[in-house]
Design brief:
Helix content: 25-40%
Oligomer: single chain
CATH class: Alpha Beta
Low-confidence stretches: 1-13
Mean pLDDT: 90
Shape: globular
Largest sheet: 8 strands, parallel
Radius of gyration: 18 Å
CATH architecture: Alpha-Beta Barrel
Structural class: alpha/beta
Number of domains: 1
Number of helices: 9
CATH superfamily: Dihydropteroate synthase-like
Order of helices and strands: EEEHEHEHEHEHEHEHHEH
Distance between the termini: 26 Å
């Protein structure tokens, strides 16, 4: 399958099917889609994304689906800057009951699991997850690539420099965009050699990047279109917004929408967000603008 980043040509047919396999389901990326964030952790950077009670989790999942989310992304180990690594057992104990409940309640939805651990990825896939969202791009668990290659789950290959505990300690690049492109080239080749092709790429805003790095990546987001893979943008309520306009994560919705809009104009096919309705509105408006341009 081929994916094209950047601005669509005038008259682009948004109805054209463009599929990526996500386990037993297919995700049509002929137009951008929303990945709604559901955190199962007590310490995620945005308190509004924490859902630790089963009824609250299912209510929020239903709300996101109703507002237009095509994917629900479950995370059971915080990867915010400075986060302490939780044990594999604790991550699994948090994750599996929630995953099983959502699979049962919403069998039609594509479920993504945010983990860098191969064992968690495999258990999640066997329990019904269709996407493995790895913030480490296979660098934190050497078994991840061989594990996901044996599944039909789509794999989100994200760039990170360091670990969540260390990534924001003076990250340095000679050219951040070039280095991320090189990272993707090497990692995509390794996955392809294992037979893995249903890959989504994510430049990893805020994961081992300075404020200037993040905006350079945003300004050059369309440069990643040359890989021919769908591009995910995850900037929801992050510090790259708050440090510029002086907001807290709880106040960063407007800033998030601005950067989501830029991401769409630069070719993003998936927006990973805490707030589904505003992101869907951005998609609809950008689509109309491009159709009429």
């Amino acid at each position: 399958m081929a994916f094209t980043a950047g601005l669509p040509d005038k008259g682009m047919d948004f109805s054209q099917t463009c599929l990526i396999s996500c386990g037993s389901k297919q995700l049509d990326l002929s137009q951008p889609r929303i990945m709604g964030i559901l955190n199962l952790t007590p310490d995620s950077f945005y308190a509004g994304s924490r859902h630790n009670k089963p009824d609250e989790l299912l209510r929020k999942a239903a709300e996101m689906i109703d507002e237009g989310a095509s994917i629900l992304d479950l995370g059971a180990a915080s990867t915010r800057p400075g986060a302490q690594t939780v044990s594999e057992e604790e991550e699994k104990n948090r994750l599996m009951p929630a995953l099983e409940a959502i699979v049962k309640a919403f069998p039609e939805i594509i479920i993504s699991v945010d983990t860098f651990r191969a064992n968690i990825a495999l258990a999640s896939y066997n329990a019904g997850a269709g996407i493995i969202n790895d913030i480490s791009g296979g660098t934190l668990d050497k078994a991840m690539f061989s594990t996901v290659a044996k599944t039909e789950a789509a794999y989100v290959l994200m760039h990170i420099k360091g670990t969540p505990e260390t990534m924001q300690t003076n990250p340095e690049y000679s050219d951040v965009v070039s280095e991320i492109r090189e990272f993707f080239s090497e990692r995509i080749l390794a996955l392809n050699q294992l037979g893995k092709h249903n890959i989504i790429i994510d430049p990893g805003f805020g994961f081992g990047k300075t404020l200037a790095d993040n905006y350079k990546i945003m300004n050059n987001l369309d440069a990643f279109g040359s890989f021919g893979l769908p591009l995910l943008s995850g900037i929801s309520r992050k510090s790259m917004i708050n440090r510029v306009i002086g907001t807290a994560p709880s106040e960063a919705l407007n800033g998030t929408t601005v950067l989501n809009t830029i991401s769409l104009m630069k070719g993003a096919k998936i927006l990973r967000v805490h707030d589904v309705k505003p992101a869907m509105e951005a998609i609809k408006l950008v689509k109309e603008y491009l159709l009429q341009s």
